[in-house]
TrEMBL record:
The chain crosses the membrane at residues 49-66, 78-98, 136-154, 175-193, 199-219. Pathway: Phospholipid metabolism; CDP-diacylglycerol biosynthesis; CDP-diacylglycerol from sn-glycerol 3-phosphate: step 3/3; Lipid metabolism. PANTHER family: PHOSPHATIDATE CYTIDYLYLTRANSFERASE. This is Phosphatidate cytidylyltransferase. The keyword Nucleotide-binding does not apply. Belongs to the CDS family. GO terms for biological process: CDP-diacylglycerol biosynthetic process.
């Protein structure tokens, strides 16, 4: 527990400092988190990290992460980001033929889904930060409130299992408690942060963030259970890997971005 608390404080202070400062350190952080998250998924499947498919998947991850404003400057000659994504996907599929199907279509699908899932999750985190610091803080604090509320309320009142086949410790009472805490924090943030949205709309966003954040957590639990691992990685002592901490983020940031630009 002591190790977990120390890691949480140190990592939290460093993370928030970079988020607040923004600019190139934040962009570098996003690419680093995306890269580590991608390799955590690759290692779960016990796939060779130095194999051509893994390298192609890494390029897919980086390409997905690239912010929209970078894309406009990088792709000015009749080719855009989606064209390169298709080329990399075709290379990945071609590798199934070159290996005489020892690297299968299912393997290629895993690499593609891993790259796009992680890459676009962190891409939208970057896009939301460009919208403003308050726009990023809102979903982050709502997610943290959901996690804390679900844990403590689940511990105190949880009796009915939410999805025991995937995550045996989660309860319906804890899940609902997380949503309630998310709503409370959303109302508080509507007065604390400078956001160009009504309180009602922020509550609506908070409910979706809370629900889909918990789904993102369950998705990561399903991954780990399927591949027989306890944590996605060991980079954060006492906490596990990057995906153990960011699973809710990368699942909800695309949704938050769409809701904030409507």
């Amino acid at each position: 527990m002591k190790e977990r608390i120390i890691t949480g404080i140190v990592a939290g202070v460093l993370f928030l400092s970079i988020v607040i400062y923004g600019k190139w350190p934040f962009s570098l952080l996003i690419f680093a988190l995306g890269t580590i998250g991608y390799f955590e998924l690759i290692k779960m499947k016990k796939q060779d990290v130095f194999s051509p498919p893994t390298v192609i998947g890494l390029l897919l991850t980086w390409l997905a992460i690239i912010p929209n404003d970078w894309s406009m400057n990088m792709f000015q000659y009749g080719i855009d980001k989606s064209d390169l994504l298709i080329i990399l996907l075709l290379l990945l599929l071609s590798y199934t033929v070159l290996t005489k199907n020892t690297f299968t279509f299912e393997d290629a699908s895993f690499v593609t889904l891993s790259a796009l899932y992680v890459g676009y999750g962190f891409h939208y985190m970057h896009e939301i930060r460009l919208m403003g610091l308050a726009d990023l803080f809102f979903p982050l604090f709502v997610i943290w409130a959901t996690d804390s509320g679900a844990y403590f309320i689940g511990k105190a009142f949880g009796k009915t299992k939410l999805w025991p086949e995937i995550s045996p410790n989660k309860t319906i009472e804890g899940s609902l408690g997380g949503v309630v805490c998310a709503i409370v924090v959303a109302v508080i943030l509507s007065f604390v942060l400078t956001l160009n949205y009504s309180v009602i709309y922020l509550i609506f966003v908070a409910i979706l963030v809370s629900v889909f954040g918990q789904i993102g957590d369950l998705v990561q639990s399903a991954y780990k259970r399927y591949y027989g691992v306890k944590d996605s990685g060991k980079i954060l002592p006492g906490h596990g890997g990057i995906l153990d901490r960011c699973d809710s983020w990368i699942f909800t940031f695309p949704i938050v971005y769409l809701l904030f630009v409507l």
